Give the backbone structure.
Amino acid sequence: MTSHGKVRVLIVDDSAFMRKVLHSILLAEPGFDVVGEARDGREAAAQAEALKPDVITMDINMPHVDGLQATEQIMSTNPRPILIVSSESREGAEITLKALELGAIDFVAKPNSGVDLDMSSVRDELVRKLRVAAKVRVVRTASRTKLGQEIASSAPRTEPGIASKPQSNLNGAPVGRSNSKFPLVVIAASTGGPATLMKLMPAFPREFPGAVILVQHMPGNF
């Protein structure tokens, strides 16, 4: 944040009109300072490195380098909280999940074209999520290729023809049998959860003596 405590925002969108709209919204809100604008993912990565904003608004469908590629690059080299602001979010969970897996914090769906393009309909949601995202401590994420290799290398291996010995829990009872008490780990996550869970879960040992319950907040259409 700036010396005045304002949230420093980098706006990324290939539409000059949308960049202007987002800029105007944040200009009218106390506590925000738009430090830069980028027209595509290539510019976004460069400005994220140079400006080191507190949070980035990221469109998905852009020329040259799209929002997913830019998110992956930024989160693997110069991690910053990223809020996806895109009409692509309306087309289902797949695009949004990809962005969250790559390290994005949250998303806001742009209104559809026409009269509904008035961003005031999502102003409150946008401002609220930007304030939350700016406070999130982000972590460097591996690229999808590297992450896949890491997960594969951490997967348990069994020698051909050798049956695995039944594992026991802390009370000595074989796993799979009824027991009145057993260790339980509950992990609850919301903003920034998917990317963190992708790094956390492969670290659990195969012989972990208990159950793990994941609670991840997601929008209703998921």
Remarks:
- Helices lie at 16-27, 41-51, 67-77, 93-101, 123-134, 144-154, 193-200.
- Residues 16-27 form the longest helix (12 residues).
